[in-house]
Amino acid sequence: MFSVVIVEDEKPILELMKVVVGRNPHCRIIGAFNNPLEALEKLPELQPDIAFLDVEMPKLSGLELAQRLNECCEGTRIVFTTAYKEYALEAFRVFAFDYILKPVMTSAIDRITTRLLKEAGRAGTEAAPPAESVPKAFIRCLGSFEVRSPQNELVRWPTKKTEELYAYLLCWPNQDISKWKLVDLLWPEMSEERATHNLHNTVYRLKKLMKEQDIGMDVVKTGDGYLLKALDTGYDLLEFLQGMPGPGKMEQTEPERLESLFALYRGTLLGHKDYMWKVQLEESCGKQYRAIGCSLAKRYLAEGDWDRAEQRLLTCLSYYPLEEELNLLLMEVYAASGKRERVTRHYSLFETQYRREMGMEVPGEISRKVKMYMELSKIIDKRQ
């Protein structure tokens, strides 16, 4: 088992990292710090096998910390976590073992430990630092559509249809999809013979591109269709869909799992791609994300953790500003914490935006609930 230290200055991300890393059976967390200077003081004593370091931190950057770490912990493998791909080259200059793009997913941690175990020759044996790191491809489907090679190069699509076919298969991975369905989606106005020929050529281009770019996936021919096999490359949408609690299971799901799913969502499916076929899945993902946000906020509200409840709701509202349940729940949080002025201010902003976007007055039920929250806030003020 590998001993692990995590250094991340943002506390919510640090908590999420602890959950994601803790799920790996080969990892044992021996230290977690949101202050890099404190981490630097403790690291010589801890001597971890793996150190996950955020790149951008105040007082001491992850790159600077890595340089100091190399001096005091020669056996520690450094793995950078960052939202910025341009740091990859700098990471390897300080002899980093690997780097992971945020949001950190369980598949990325699995990849790290698998590499270490292979190099060690047997499970649980400390591996020697490799001479060269071998990063994997990066794929993002939530909030944007972006595919990068292991060399951090943006994949250039030979045709728009090749890109769209890959996007569609990513939305329904490991599923046998009829070639006729793909033909209708991609070339609805074309003759059957010509459309089938185009599909064959497009699949060939996609397979060739994935092999050349070392994407770690393959498209295989089935009886009467095609199937995308996600071999050793994970991505945000796959984890989001696979990790989603079943019907009626949201309230029974542990908050750590919900936090992990919540962090995966970065916006609408495939960003600004205007594919008509994505609408239903996009709406489903958005609905599930809002349900997760509400569930977490309600739990934190019940625990009296106002700040965390507010943070989750504000994040949700940045994507869905007019969602009534989210707005009401946020005002309930403000009321319960005795922040009457915030209830008033938020309702005023919501009312203005609602009128502008919807062209009508806020429903009376919402106004009545806001009045109730105001009364609750007054009562709390008097008690305090």
Notes on the protein architecture:
With 384 residues, the protein is an alpha/beta fold. It contains 15 helices and 10 strands. It has helices spanning 11-22, 36-46, 62-72, 88-93, 106-120, 160-171, 179-186, 192-212, 236-243, 255-264, 279-303, 306-319, 324-336, 340-358, 364-383; strands spanning 2-7, 27-33, 50-54, 77-82, 98-101, 138-140, 146-148, 177-178, 217-221, 225-230. The strands form 3 sheets. A 5-stranded parallel beta sheet has the order 2-1-3-4-5, sandwiched between helices. Helix 1 (11-22) links the parallel strand 1 and strand 2.
Let me know the number of strands.
10
Question: How much β-strand is present in the residues?
Answer: 5-15%
In terms of per-residue confidence, which ranges show pLDDT below 50 for 5 or more consecutive residues? 122-133
What proportion of the residues is helical, as a percent range? 40-55%
Distance between the termini: 50 Å
The ordered H/E elements are: EHEHEHEHEHEEHEHHEEHHHHHHH
Mean pLDDT: 86
- By secondary-structure content and strand pairing, the structural class works out as alpha/beta
What is the makeup of the main sheet?
A: 5 strands, parallel
As a whole number of angstroms, the C-alpha radius of gyration is 24 Å
Silhouette: flat
The count of helical stretches stands at 15
If strands are numbered along the chain, what order do they take across the biggest sheet? 2-1-3-4-5
Blueprint of the fold:
Blueprint: E1 2-7, H1 11-22, E2 27-33, H2 36-46, E3 50-54, H3 62-72, E4 77-82, H4 88-93, E5 98-101, H5 106-120, E6 138-140, E7 146-148, H6 160-171, E8 177-178, H7 179-186, H8 192-212, E9 217-221, E10 225-230, H9 236-243, H10 255-264, H11 279-303, H12 306-319, H13 324-336, H14 340-358, H15 364-383
Parallel strand pairs: 1-2, 1-3, 3-4, 4-5
Antiparallel strand pairs: 6-7, 8-10, 9-10
